[in-house]
């Protein structure tokens, strides 16, 4: 605004809208050709267009006498494409590759914002573009050579089979199948398929064109149509608008294009689009994708501020409780109008079979596929689909439920567990009538009853038990050493070795766990919902082997490195949320599902080159001490490391700052070498602006 007087208007130019070529004007681009090498002087042999699809093909001659042209290669290509005998359908009539075909693709589907302009005699004439096309070399002749090669092979095979014509053909059974009605989702996938688009393009016939050189008289005549034919300003009132109307024409309001969005695959889920939907639809789509999930992980995928009561109300409408975890309902996976892709049976039959599998998992952690197929009378492929939704196969044992028993959820929500138990009793009565189940099938064995509700010892409790036992051993050791010292009366000359027992907060081994009185009551068949035998007791309460622990650490470190290279600064709460999102995208049975404690995640962050920033939160902050932990990538190897580190150290004195204060402090350290672009870069990496103040990411208190 201050420099507005220093920028006077030098010249005013009249702008005219030419419409003579508005529906016929195309702009051709040659992205693989340099600007200095145009095709103006190259002979154009033919041209054709499909107007509706805006598809153009142009044949351009190749200079076969150029020293850069390899004649032997040209003859070989022509021989491969057309064969030894030439006819009217030959691509290269001279038995030499003497031409090249250029095919177009649309550079922009909406060209309403583009125009071609000519400046002449102080006037600017603008013509809207009808199409914006990029011309690239086409190698369709190679497809023709491949087709000829297959035809020759088929002819040779037919000649070899002709000697067997005397043998009578066997009578073959013909199976007649009727195609079922196409669903709307299947129709959308078919319309978006490559085969459908190719077929649609082939339906429109080519319109042959005649090419005129840039210096041809006809070209000069057509170029005159780029000028507005009526330049009388008194009669041409189309652009005579008021300032507000003209401004609205230049900057029209944003209107969302009503284009049909392609159907995303079932295994692709955009969390940004998902959170625009109502909470019930969010949970339904999420459960349809993940199939099985603990309630704690589900809350981690919800937006910040979502109430657990609302989530609990919605999850019960689309999922059932199995071993403390939520499994999506069968009617959500198989809607009414759907059918099996393997056997073609109806959705109702599939739902009954899947409900039977879910009910079996409420009785035991293991299910045998053969038994399910015998009861449900469904094909092996359908039964395998049911089991893959909620379990993983184990060699010589069967299918084990995918997740461990969630004891915490069962203890916190007894009312929900009771309600789900009543629902399962109703489903059980229906299954008895449908599949004619016997009492032996319904009543689980004693081992199954004990395994249906496995006893889980939390890791904190095991640590406390072990720590208490270590203190008792320590006290006993000190007492023995003191007694021995008194008896020997060696005084200061005696050397006493006192063994300190250092207990780390890590999972205990099997022997240590079995020494406690609490662990003795664990069922021998199930520990935390996992079957174990005497030969493979290498996992108690999520304990994994040394090799698996190294693999978990490697996977976790890769996740932390990748996330901090993008975010730079994260709070512990945001890091856990992103980790839950990462888990939701992993395949079932991944090594990270073994259970990652917060301490292990924090140690991985610190070992990955990050530091904890001690941000002084305000006293009225409602964030917990765990949520107030802020971690930052201290060094990433770029030119902004020192500037970023200085910025992070400033926030150790206060949780919010103004931009001018930050700029003053950093300028004192880096001098005049600090530019606005550098400051903007580090602020964008590490901070967010809220109410005119800058905060570290994740520390803004609403």
Task: Summarize the helices and strands and which ones pair or pack.
Layout: E1 14-17, E2 26-29, E3 44-50, E4 55-61, H1 71-82, E5 99-106, E6 115-120, E7 123-128, E8 131-138, H2 140-161, H3 184-192, H4 194-203, E9 207-209, H5 217-223, H6 243-250, H7 271-274, H8 279-290, E10 292-293, H9 295-301, H10 308-318, E11 319-322, E12 325-328, H11 330-333, H12 347-363, E13 366-367, H13 369-376, H14 380-390, E14 391-394, E15 398-401, H15 407-412, H16 414-435, H17 439-442, H18 446-452, H19 459-488, H20 510-514, E16 526-527, E17 530-531, H21 546-567, E18 569-571, H22 572-584, H23 598-607, E19 610-613, E20 630-633, H24 641-650, E21 656-657, H25 659-670, H26 676-686, E22 687-690, E23 693-696
Parallel strand pairs: 1-7, 2-8
Antiparallel strand pairs: 3-4, 3-9, 4-5, 5-8, 6-7, 10-12, 11-12, 13-15, 14-15, 16-17, 18-20, 19-20, 21-23, 22-23
Helix pairs in contact: 8-10, 12-14, 12-16, 13-14, 21-23, 24-25, 24-26
Task: Describe the protein's architecture and organization.
- With 702 residues, this protein is of the alpha+beta class.
- The protein folds into three domains: 18-62 and 98-155 and 182-255, no CATH class; 274-443, no CATH class; 546-696, no CATH class.
- It is 42% helix and 14% strand.
- The chain is built from 26 helices and 23 strands.
- The protein has a six-stranded mixed sheet, with no helix packed on it. A three-stranded mixed sheet has the order 1-7-6, with no helix packed on it. It has a three-stranded antiparallel sheet with strand order 10-12-11.
- The chain is extended and about 115 Å long.
């Amino acid at each position: 605004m201050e420099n507005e007087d220093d920028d006077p208007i030098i010249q005013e130019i009249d702008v005219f809208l030419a419409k003579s070529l508005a529906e016929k004007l195309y702009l051709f681009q040659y992205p693989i050709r340099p600007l200095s090498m145009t095709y103006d002087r190259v002979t154009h042999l033919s041209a054709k267009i499909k107007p509706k699809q805006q598809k153009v093909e142009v044949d351009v001659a190749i200079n076969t006498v150029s020293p850069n042209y390899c004649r032997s290669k040209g003859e070989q290509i022509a021989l491969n494409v057309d064969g030894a005998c030439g006819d009217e359908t030959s691509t290269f009539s001279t038995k030499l590759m003497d031409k090249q075909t250029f095919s177009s693709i649309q550079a922009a589907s909406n060209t309403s914002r583009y125009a071609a302009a000519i400046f002449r005699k102080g006037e600017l004439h603008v013509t809207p573009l009808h199409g914006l096309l990029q011309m690239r070399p086409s190698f369709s002749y190679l497809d023709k050579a491949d087709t000829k090669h297959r035809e020759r092979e088929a002819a040779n095979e037919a000649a070899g089979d002709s000697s067997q014509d005397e043998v009578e053909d066997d009578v073959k059974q013909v199976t007649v199948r009727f195609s079922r009605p196409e669903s709307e989702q299947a129709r959308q996938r078919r319309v978006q398929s490559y085969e459908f688009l190719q077929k649609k393009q082939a339906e429109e016939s080519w319109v042959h064109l005649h090419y005129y050189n840039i210096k041809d008289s006809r070209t000069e005549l057509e170029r005159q149509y780029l000028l507005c034919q009526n330049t009388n300003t008194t009669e041409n009132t189309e652009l005579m608008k008021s300032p507000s109307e003209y401004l609205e024409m230049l900057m029209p309001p944003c209107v969302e294009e009503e284009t049909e969005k392609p159907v995303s695959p079932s295994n692709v889920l955009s969390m940004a689009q998902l959170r625009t939907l109502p909470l019930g639809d969010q949970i339904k789509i999420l459960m349809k994708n993940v199939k099985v999930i603990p309630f704690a992980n589900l809350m981690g995928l919800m937006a910040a501020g979502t109430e657990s009561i609302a989530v609990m109300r919605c999850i019960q409408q689309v999922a059932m409780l199995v071993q403390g975890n939520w499994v999506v309902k069968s009617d959500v996976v198989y809607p009414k109008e759907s059918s099996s892709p393997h056997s073609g049976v109806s959705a109702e039959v599939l739902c009954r079979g899947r409900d039977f599998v879910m009910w079996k998992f409420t009785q035991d952690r293991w299910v045998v596929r053969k038994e399910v197929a015998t009861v449900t009378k469904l094909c092996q492929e359908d039964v395998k689909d049911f089991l893959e939704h909620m379990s993983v196969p184990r060699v010589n044992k069967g299918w084990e439920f995918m997740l461990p028993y969630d004891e915490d959820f069962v203890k916190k929500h007894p009312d929900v567990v009771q309600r789900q138990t009543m629902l399962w009793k109703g489903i059980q009565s229906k299954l008895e009538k449908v599949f004619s189940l016997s009492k032996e099938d319904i009543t689980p064995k004693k081992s199954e009853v004990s395994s249906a509700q496995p006893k889980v010892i939390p890791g904190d409790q095991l640590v406390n038990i072990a720590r208490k036992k270590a203190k008792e051993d320590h006290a006993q050791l000190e007492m023995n050493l003191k007694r021995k010292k008194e008896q020997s009366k060696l005084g200061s000359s005696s050397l006493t070795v006192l063994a300190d027992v250092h207990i780390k907060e890590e999972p205990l081994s099997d022997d240590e766990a079995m020494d406690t009185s609490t662990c003795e009551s664990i069922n021998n068949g199930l520990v935390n919902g996992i079957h174990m035998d005497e030969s493979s007791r290498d996992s108690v309460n999520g304990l994994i082997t040394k090799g698996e622990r190294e693999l978990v650490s490697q996977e976790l470190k890769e996740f932390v490195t990748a996330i901090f290279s993008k975010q730079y600064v994260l709070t512990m709460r945001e890091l856990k949320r992103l980790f839950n999102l990462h888990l939701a995208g992993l395949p079932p049975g991944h090594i990270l599902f073994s259970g990652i404690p917060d301490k292990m995640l924090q140690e991985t962050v610190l070992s990955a080159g990050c530091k904890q920033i001690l941000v002084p939160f305000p006293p009225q902050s409602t964030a917990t001490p765990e949520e107030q932990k802020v971690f930052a990538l201290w060094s990433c190897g770029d030119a902004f490391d020192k500037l970023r580190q200085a910025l992070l150290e400033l926030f150790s004195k206060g949780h919010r700052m103004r931009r001018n204060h930050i700029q003053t402090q950093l300028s004192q350290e880096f001098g005049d070498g600090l530019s606005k672009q550098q400051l903007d870069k580090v602020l964008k990496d590490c901070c967010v602006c809220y109410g005119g103040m800058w905060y570290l990411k994740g520390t803004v208190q609403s």
